[in-house]
Automatic annotation (TrEMBL):
The keyword Hydrolase applies. It comes from Gordonia desulfuricans. It holds the Pfam family ABHD18. InterPro entries: AB_hydrolase_fold, ABHD18. Keywords: Hydrolase. One of its GO terms (molecular function) is hydrolase activity. PANTHER family: PROTEIN ABHD18. The keyword Hydrolase applies. Signal peptide: none annotated. This is Abhydrolase domain-containing 18.
């Protein structure tokens, strides 16, 4: 049994990459008829994609800074101190509607062949006073990359990236040029806290401090909602919000709070941030199970309730909701996408592959294009 007590021990996760990939591909091949989940194809490509997921998990396990157990216990105690307040406020009480952002700078830039505007902006205070000290980005600017024709009556799409993204190459990862040129959308790619140029030393999101995770999710939501206020000044014909992986639940939260959002899609979404972390910690021996239990504890669950996208329904009509689910998702799990689809209704696209592999799927690209057309 692997124990996360040392980095060398965590490296033992690499030995299980291929066996886990083969086993998970076989399980996905059976499907879940009782839950409406179709079987996935089984073959070298599916096993290879599953191995990519497992390798990604192993890499992150090795490089992730795991604090001592007593530090994480202290983090959970901080959650306990504000749990009653967060529960009483609820989602709508925590997520206050922001004003339009204050634009600090707008610069024309180019990445490869794609021209875009880099917009940096400030949002008003939005956190309960009890957790302002837990926001490492207090008073700092938010950022977004924007492709726009600058006219009124345009269709807009906001695409929220996943963990370890937020760089200029998001323009290619999320096909910003295609969305803008071929589908005729204006495009906004916000940069989440602790990602891309917004990274701060010793701030991880998602990380091992549950309260900071929740605070940064609240910040991400309010930054995107402020961006929507800025877009609304241009009298858009439509605003669609999309999110991939970590960005999925953030996009879903915005879609539940913003009446201006008329369409929403979530691609291989993560739902329960701390439950997902705990699921991967369970693999890592006795210390991993102790850490997982803390991530699943009542105080963490209570504060996380205000970032639960399953607590409310999106404002968009069911026919304007799409979930893309990877049948062999080893990173955020198929069950997350299945639960979101069950809650949303609307459309679902079942991809016969993995979380990492979804980025290479022409089928997903076609399904997204059909939804947005």
């Amino acid at each position: 049994m692997i124990d996360w007590g040392t980095g060398v021990a965590r490296a033992g996760l690499f030995a299980s990459v291929l066996p886990r990939a083969i086993a998970s591909a076989r399980i996905a091949g059976r499907g879940r008829p009782d839950a409406g989940v179709p079987p996935s194809a089984v073959g070298p490509r599916v096993v290879g994609e599953s191995a990519l997921d497992e390798f990604f998990i192993a890499i992150n396990s090795v490089i992730r800074d795991i604090p001592p157990l007593e530090v994480i216990e202290g983090n959970v105690a901080r959650c306990d101190a504000v749990a009653a307040e967060f529960t009483a406020l609820g989602i709508e009480g925590i997520h206050q509607r922001p004003n339009a952002p204050r634009i600090v700078s707008q610069k024309r830039k180019m990445f490869g062949t794609t021209r875009f505007d880099q917009i940096d902006y400030l949002v008003d205070g939005f956190l309960p006073q009890s957790v302002v000290v837990d926001d490492p980005y207090a008073g700092m600017t938010a950022s977004a990359r924007v492709l726009s024709r600058s006219g009124k009556g345009r269709r807009w799409i906001i695409w929220v990236h996943g963990a370890a993204q937020g760089r200029n190459d998001d323009l290619y990862a999320f096909r910003a040029g295609h969305l803008h040129g071929a589908l005729d959308y204006d495009v906004a790619l916000p940069v989440l806290p602790a990602h891309g140029a917004r990274r701060l030393r010793k701030v991880a999101y998602p990380g091992m401090d549950p309260l900071v995770n929740v605070v940064l999710t609240i910040r991400a939501v309010v930054e995107i909602r402020a961006l929507i206020r800025w877009i609304a000044r241009r009298e858009p014909a439509e605003i669609v919000i999309a999110g991939t992986s970590l960005g999925g639940p953030i996009a879903a939260l915005v879609a539940t709070l913003e009446p201006d959002v008329s369409g929403t899609l979530a691609v291989v979404p993560m739902l329960d941030l701390h439950g997902t972390l705990a699921h991967h910690m369970d693999r890592a021996g006795s210390r991993g199970r102790e850490l997982a239990a803390l991530m699943r504890s009542d105080p963490v669950t209570a504060v996380s309730s205000v970032i639960d996208p399953l607590a409310l329904d999106p404002m968009a009509s069911p026919d304007r909701r799409l979930v893309v689910a990877a049948l062999n998702d080893r990173v955020t799990s198929l069950s997350a996408a299945r639960k979101l689809h069950a809650h949303w209704g609307g459309q679902v696209y079942w991809y016969a592959g993995s979380h990492v592999g979804h980025a290479m799927s022409r089928g997903i690209q076609d399904a997204v294009d059909d939804f947005l057309a």
